[in-house]
Write a structure and sequence with these properties.
CATH class of the largest domain: Mainly Alpha
Structural class: alpha+beta
Distance between the termini: 50 Å
Order of helices and strands: HHHHHHHEEEEEEEHEEHHHH
Number of strands: 9
Radius of gyration: 21 Å
CATH superfamily of the largest domain: Butyryl-CoA Dehydrogenase, subunit A, domain 3
Shape: globular
Bound molecules: 3-thiaglutaryl-CoA, flavin-adenine dinucleotide
CATH architecture of the largest domain: Up-down Bundle
Number of helices: 12
Oligomer: single chain
Strand order of the largest sheet: 2-3-7-6
Length: 392
């Protein structure tokens, strides 16, 4: 049996140190995460506080950021780590993405020196958990319309409003919250705040009954007269470009991550079809099966090539947001198709948690929705192609 990536010759495109890092991440996941995933998914809970320090030790939190206890790897290496994390479960990759690419990146890119020194080393170690509150109930795809607001009161800021669908909010120690600070300024008035979650007036009820990303904690953020000192404001970010710059980082991780989920589905399925006998011969020996496997391998390999190409562009400092959209759209769209097709080959076994494929397919429903839906990325690519914005 030859691995789809080997057919594509992907191995030669990955540096030795990147492959070593991938192997060590995979080994930790095999030991500490993979055996528990079905139970966590079924229970709808995940031990974030135990996992975060393990991931911190591996240098996975804020992995491609420089200084402040962060590993400072290449972007491509970070992407490959996301691939391994999501090959375990999208919820596990989400934990790392939200911590490193959203909460830590926001502070690293837009924070004051004091904020960086206060928060980043303990977040890199996984001792402090962060979350990132942008989305609101009625403002998901269109965060520019957010209602959460911050008003000046003497030297303080007072925050009121709510955020929805926030990964890790119920377990977080610190939240990066985006709020409107001016009545008539539109998106230009959007500013970011670093909010310790024990601040009076802050609460984060958990969202339950999810059918997707069950091995991940999701919550609301409710802000009722949350009073913060001036030093809580992210001084360098003004306007929507602040949060959107963070989304570029998390979307980049998903480009690789979703490929990992699809790889896991296809590896599981390749092994299954060789063992499964139907009408007295292996399922792998039927032409219809091989056609499915060939088509899935083709899309998986193409998605991986695109991810690596975009990773190298990011490392060269030339990656543009519309290129991130190309990758996020492609990886999510093709990975979910692969997961669903793999499920067909597993028959009834495919609907259980004994195999990871339907867990991945269900997770990928969230992954194709958060960090910009398929349609938002189509419109972003469309805008780059035509010069016309069609969001509004
Ligand atoms: P638009 O007029 O296009 O831009 C407003 C300002 O932002 C700048 N900008 C960007 N800057 C950095 N990176 C980008 N990708 C940027 N895109 C735009 C732009 O230059 C402008 O700057 P300035 O200086 O002129 O003010 O804004 P718009 O209101 O038309 O919105 C565009 C749109 C629809 C693409 C944007 O709102 C969008 O991306 N919507 C989707 C929202 C989204 O993805 N939310 C994700 C929330 S976080 C999350 O889901 C975490 S999931 C957990 C996990 O990751 O695992
Ligand atoms: P909507 O914006 O209501 O979209 C509904 C449909 O309308 C979609 O198909 C969309 O593509 C389409 N649509 C929207 N605009 C247009 C348009 N202009 N033209 C055509 N079609 C359009 N957010 C955070 O801030 N932080 C987090 O940590 C976080 N974690 C999440 C975790 C999970 C498990 C999930 C599911 C979501 C999370 N989100 C988080 C929220 C996520 O970013 C939003 O769900 C996402 O941006 C989409 O917003 P929405 O759900 O409000 O959908």
């Amino acid at each position: 049996m030859t691995h789809p990536f080997t057919v594509f010759g992907i191995d030669g495109l990955i540096e030795d140190d990147e492959r070593d890092m991938q192997r060590s991440v995979r080994a930790v996941l095999d030991e500490a995460v993979r055996p528990h995933l079905a139970d966590w998914f079924e229970a709808g809970s995940v031990p974030v506080r135990e996992l975060a320090p393990r991931f911190g030790e591996l240098g996975l939190l804020g992995m491609h950021l420089e200084g402040y206890g962060c590993a400072g790897t290449s972007a491509t290496a970070y992407g490959l780590a996301c691939l391994e994390l999501e090959a375990a479960d999208s919820g596990i990759r989400s934990l790392v993405s939200v911590q490193g690419s959203l909460a830590m990146f926001a502070i690293h890119r837009w924070g004051s020196e004091e904020q960086k020194e206060q928060w980043l080393p303990s977040m890199a170690a996984g001792e402090v958990i962060g979350c990132f509150g942008l989305t609101e109930q009625d403002f998901g795809s269109n965060p520019a319309g957010m209602r959460t607001h911050a008003r000046r009161d003497g030297g303080d800021w007072v925050l009121n409003g709510s955020k929805m669908w926030i990964t890790n909010a119920p377990v977080a120690d610190v939240a990066v919250v985006w709020a409107q600070t001016e009545r008539d300024a539109g998106p230009k008035g959007i500013r970011g705040f670093v909010v310790p979650t024990d601040t009076p007036g802050f609460s984060a009820p958990e969202i339950t009954k999810k059918l997707s990303l069950r091995a991940s904690v999701t919550g609301e953020i409710v802000l009722e007269d949350v009073r913060l000192p001036e030093s809580a404001l992210l001084p360098q970010a003004a306007g929507l470009s602040g949060p959107l710059s963070c989304l570029n980082e998390a979307r980049f991780g998903i480009i690789f991550g979703a490929v990992g989920a699809a790889r896991d589905c296809l590896e599981t399925t390749l092994s299954y079809v060789r063992d499964r006998e139907i009408f007295d011969k292996p399922l792998a020996a039927y032409q219809l099966t091989q056609a499915k496997l060939a088509d899935m391998s083709l899309e998986l390999g193409k998605a991986m090539l695109l991810a690596l190409h975009l990773g190298r562009l990011k490392d060269a400092g030339t990656l543009r947001p519309e290129q991130v959209s190309l990758g996020k759209l492609n990886s999510c769209r093709e990975s979910i198709a692969i997961a669903r097709e793999c499920r067909t080959l597993l028959g009834a076994n495919g609907i259980t948690l004994e195999y990871p494929v339907l867990r991945h397919a269900n997770n990928l429903e969230s992954v194709r929705t958060y960090e910009g839906t398929d349609e938002i990325h189509q419109l972003t690519i469309g805008r780059a192609l035509t010069g016309e914005q069609a969001f509004r």
